[in-house]
Design goal:
The protein is α+β, with helices and mostly antiparallel strands. Strand 24 and strand 25 form a beta hairpin. Helix 6 packs antiparallel against helix 13, helix 12 crosses helix 16 and helix 14 packs antiparallel against helix 15. The radius of gyration is 40 Å and the shape is elongated.
Length: about 900
């Protein structure tokens, strides 16, 4: 018992000491903490679990350690050391700006911000240090309701998120665009952002905050600028604190003084103060006037505003899909304003469908980093870690679909920010012939009763879905919300295919036909194109087959089969057959020859098989006559045959080479080169000058006798007949017509196919057109009491502020995956949907302007994602992971466009 108590006391004392150690370690960097953690976790493992050690040394930030050793971090001044000022928290970073500029930018906003007013006096002035005393004058309830100001200069102190929001609002204003081209006005608003290292302490005697700016802590030029900014000789100086940090610091110091028996003030606290918007001296202004002119006319802008919103995202390993979608979202104007403001008040921590607000907090933190002044790329490790904890499919470093990630993120943000704490039960009443307007409004209000967030406010619209039963014509109309529209790409991407067409009339020679068909079309599209190309008669039809190793590998007889199943290297034949003989058996004649003396093989296949529908199979003569009829167009004229035998004896010895064109048609590699199913000995027919026919059934061949009746047992849908050719007959045929067979498509090295294009409006029409439901998605008809393949029609009813189009480029099925590289011609400045919406809302317009594009380059399952973003006033930039550079508006439209982001513009 005593031993247990003693051990408990030891652990208690050790825990207390480590609590003090944790406070002391607050002065150390994260890299040092990580090193301490690795050492102490081994030494003190007896007393603590590893999880406790992780919590003690801030293990949540371990994934950020690789980012600590950037050149930017090495140049940064010391971080603040007091416990409640965490420099990594964006809300604690302080910015000093002119109050007049701040107030002008804030004018017209509905949300008013409270502020604390301080009078500033110069306590001590020397050549090496500025000492300022800040005394609180009065706390105003709301900034816009405060007095117009006080006599003298006024500055404003704000945190980073509020500063970024104000700076963005200023850069987006028309006033800025007008003033930006005036050098005199631009010089007055010289937006140079620089950092001062200041030291804070509290003076209990004067009940004021003391600020010290020393030359030893700052560069000489920056110290001179600080002397000009905080000079109080000419007029009084006042500072408005809208960050709330100074008041919090003073209160904390007063509490510490009450708890400290020695009544000694705390040590000075170093802190970074970011200064923005103050003009330089007249001399420096004249020297930099020319540089300012050049920077204003450049695409990148100048140091302060030009870099706002132009921060890239580091690729953590196949995370370009995430970076592309994030850049499009964080440049959505309404989301920027929302997350740079007080968005935490909207977080729903108790929503069972949400993520405890963690996803919204992670996204908000990332957005604020991307809108902070600077150009250093941000590593979104914290965000990805939080995302992976709620969405295991995005765990690891595999490539994903940016649209799938976008859909999950928008849905997750909506649930985290849902203002509805308790979702009511809603039930749609029977319309009973009510107007669509009333029914749609009821659906929408029921939706808002359960879903109310910033995502719903700006990203969700409504469409009308109409289902019609094909049997009883029962009509079902519903009004459903949508977050984005997935548009199918019309089959305008064409494909060139070449086939050999062989007639069975015994007159026409075989010919090659090249047609152009939709790449994502059906076999029926190929048959229709061939019928036109070869002038197919009304009493004929086409039967397509794939040839492999001089045999028919498979029949292409299903008109609904996708053309994607036919490869470019395949070899196809289209047989012209009489339509009136469709009920007769189909006889396939496969050609075989005896190889030369030096080839150690038996009879082998050559040439292209011939087919015919034969009604009378009662004798071998009928089969032989039909074959000779098919062969007639392939026989050479007698003159050409005689010429073939002219010459020396060596010419006759080359007959094996002359038939090489008819041998071994290269085809699919899915079959093994097995032995010939028909095995005939050499002395059986090699010396015979006539054709020999063999009927093959179940791998067994039986010779067909000419002078004997041929008994075919039962009705046969098709027959396989192998024809053994004598050498002299091979010499009498046109070997090119009989043996040559082109591939479906042979790409040319220097030929480039013209790029097919389709308009975005055409894609939208394809989305809205009526179509039957698929067999796996049938609708249960309440009238017929069974599932029906109903006809479905969609109509746009209510459009959102932010309209997202997903171009369905990727296709997946059980056999193959593919990507459509169709060039979609989408509007940039004016997307007018007035003709595509079924209900006109007077309070909103139907015109949109493009502001972001998520691009995908490469093939399905891989490739690379980038983003094009309009940061305002038609200034387009490409975000390629951590690289950001300006692009012209002409380069925005490419065949890589995958997800399009539009924002509503007011009607003129």
């Amino acid at each position: 018992m005593r031993s247990s108590v003693g051990r408990t006391n030891i652990i208690t004392k050790t825990t207390t000491r480590f609590h003090l150690l944790r406070l002391a370690l607050g002065h150390l960097s994260r890299a040092t903490l990580w090193l301490c953690k690795s050492l102490l976790s081994k030494t003190l493992g007896v007393f603590f679990y590893s999880s406790s050690m992780d919590d003690l040394f801030l293990s949540d930030a371990d994934d950020l350690l690789p980012d600590l050793y950037t050149p930017y971090d090495r140049k940064r001044p010391l971080s603040p050391l007091f416990d409640h000022f965490d420099y990594e928290d964006d809300s604690k970073k302080l910015y000093l700006v002119p109050y007049r500029w701040w107030k002008e930018v804030q004018s017209g906003t509905t949300e008013q911000i409270a502020g604390v007013l301080y009078s500033v006096s110069l306590d001590d002035e020397s050549e090496s240090e500025i000492v300022l005393k800040l005394r609180k004058l009065e706390v105003y309830g709301k900034m816009m309701k405060a007095e117009e100001g006080v006599s003298g200069r006024e500055y404003a102190l704000v945190h980073e998120a509020l500063f970024s929001w104000t700076l963005k609002r200023y850069s987006d204003s028309k006033t800025f665009m007008k003033e930006a081209w005036s050098l005199s006005v631009a010089a007055d608003y010289w937006q140079d952002l620089f950092t001062l290292l200041i030291r804070l302490c509290f003076s209990p005697e004067a009940d004021s905050l003391v600020v010290k700016i020393g030359l030893k802590d700052n560069l000489g030029d920056l110290f001179k600028r600080a002397c000009c900014i905080f000079n109080t000789n000419s007029e009084l100086l006042y500072i408005w604190d809208f960050s709330g940090q100074t008041n919090l610091f003073i209160l904390n110091e007063k509490v510490n003084l009450c708890n400290d028996s020695s009544r000694q003030p705390r040590k000075e606290i170093p802190l970074e103060l970011h200064v923005h918007g103050f003009p330089v001296s007249q001399k420096e202004r004249n020297e930099e006037k020319e540089d300012l002119s050049n920077s204003l006319l450049s695409d990148s802008g100048y140091r302060g505003i030009g870099s706002l919103g132009l921060i890239g995202l580091q690729n953590l390993g196949n995370t370009c899909f995430m970076n592309s979608a994030l850049q499009c979202l964080v440049h959505t104007p309404q989301l920027v304003d929302f997350f740079l403001g007080d968005y935490q008040k909207d977080i729903n921590y108790k929503n069972p469908l949400g993520m405890n607000g963690e996803l919204a907090l992670a996204f908000g933190e990332l957005l604020r980093k991307l809108w902070a002044p600077g150009t250093i790329p941000v590593a979104p490790r914290k965000f990805k870690l939080k995302l992976s904890s709620f969405a295991p499919q995005f765990r690891g470093y595999n490539q994903h679909d940016s649209q799938e990630f976008l859909a999950f993120l928008l849905d997750g943000l909506h649930e985290d920010l849902n203002r509805v704490k308790c979702k009511p039960y809603t039930e749609v009443k029977d319309a009973k012939g009510c107007p669509d307007e009333e029914v749609a409004e009821e659906y929408w209000q029921n939706h808002l009763a359960r879903n109310n967030s910033i995502i719903v406010d700006i990203c969700q619209g409504q469409y009308r879905s109409t289902l019609v039963c094909p049997d009883c014509r029962k009509l079902s109309v519903t009004f459903d919300p949508f977050m984005y529209l997935t548009l199918p790409l019309p089959s305008t991407v064409m494909r060139t295919m070449t086939l050999k067409v062989i007639s069975t009339d015994g007159i026409m020679l075989p010919s090659e036909c090249t047609v152009v068909v939709p790449k994502s079309g059906k076999l029926n599209d190929l048959i229709d194109a061939l019928s036109v190309r070869c002038s197919l008669r009304n009493d004929e039809n086409l039967l397509l087959a794939e040839i492999y190793k001089n045999q028919i590998f498979r029949w292409l007889d299903d008109p609904c089969d996708s053309l994607a199943l036919i490869r470019d290297e395949d070899r196809l034949v289209a047989y012209r057959l009489p339509r009136d003989s469709d009920s007769s058996p189909l006889v396939v004649f496969s050609h075989m020859r005896m190889p030369s003396f030096y080839e150690k093989t038996n009879w082998q296949f050559f040439g292209v098989p011939l087919v015919a529908r034969i009604t009378d199979l009662s004798s071998g003569y009928n089969i032989c006559n039909h074959f000779q009829k098919l062969l007639n167009p392939l026989l050479l004229p007698i003159k050409d045959v005689v010429n073939d035998f002219d010459g020396d004896d060596g010419a006759m010895g080359t007959s094996g080479n002359k038939t090489s064109k008819m041998e071994d048609v290269v085809g699919p590699s899915v079959l093994d080169s097995g032995a010939d199913p028909v095995s005939v000995t050499e002395d059986d027919s090699h010396e015979d000058d006539n054709f020999k026919f063999y009927l093959v059934e179940n791998m067994v061949s039986t010779e067909i006798k000419m002078n004997e009746p041929e008994l075919i047992s039962g009705f046969k849908k098709s027959l396989d007949v192998h024809v053994h050719w004598p050498d002299k007959m091979i010499e009498k045929c046109d070997r090119d017509s009989l043996g040559s067979l082109p591939v479906v498509f042979r790409p040319h090295s220097f030929a480039r196919e013209p790029q097919e294009s389709v308009s975005l409006y055409k894609c939208l029409e394809g989305f809205l057109q009526e179509e039957p439901l698929g067999p796996d998605d049938m609708w249960f008809c309440p009238s017929c009491k069974k599932h029906q393949q109903a006809n479905k029609k969609l109509d746009l009813w209510r459009l959102p502020e932010i309209l997202v189009f997903h171009l369905k480029r990727f296709s997946y099925n059980w056999m193959l995956n593919g990507k459509l590289g169709t060039y979609v011609d989408f509007p940039i400045e004016d997307l007018d949907l007035s003709d595509y919406i079924s209900h006109q809302h007077s309070q909103s317009g139907n015109r949109y302007r493009l502001y972001a594009v998520s691009n995908h380059y490469g093939a399905v399952g891989g490739g690379h994602y980038t983003a094009f973003v309009d940061i305002g006033h038609g200034r387009w930039y490409e975000f390629d992971d951590g690289s950001v550079h300006s692009v012209t508006i002409d380069s925005i439209k490419t065949s890589a466009a995958y997800v399009l982001f539009y924002r509503r513009v007011p009607d003129l």
